Structure to design on (116 residues):
């Protein structure tokens, strides 16, 4: 498997040679679609609206959020495997909009994608 990275989309708007997937359910504020270079926008791998709202980017809720989000991802095996297939041949960048580089859904998604 090639490398799977997470990148805050506000800091990494331009193509970098990797397969770039926006993994947010909502389009990021203040970014024009023409200003962000990406290969796909995968809303299906983003947390459900209910889970996202409950978490609300509060670090103290991240552990519980992680467990619930991993449970949601268990139902998306086909989509996860598709991303793994892409990562078998090229680097993949998971683009997210959250300000927190550690406590965000893209970090959890990367864990799930790279687990053996």
């Amino acid at each position: 498997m090639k490398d799977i990275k997470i990148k805050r989309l506000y800091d990494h708007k331009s193509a970098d040679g990797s397969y770039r997937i926006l993994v947010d359910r909502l389009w990021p504020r203040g970014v024009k679609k023409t200003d962000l270079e990406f290969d796909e926008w995968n809303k299906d791998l983003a947390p459900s609206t209910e889970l996202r709202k409950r978490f609300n980017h509060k670090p103290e809720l991240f552990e519980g959020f992680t467990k619930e989000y991993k449970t949601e991802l268990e139902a998306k095996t086909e989509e996860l495997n598709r991303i793994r297939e892409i990562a078998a041949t090229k680097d993949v960048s998971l683009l997210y909009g959250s300000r927190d580089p550690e406590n965000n859904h893209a970090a959890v998604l990367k864990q799930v994608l790279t687990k053996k």
Remarks:
- The longest strand covers residues 4-8.
- The helical segments are 49-55, 62-74, 77-87, 105-114.
- Residues 4-114 form one domain.
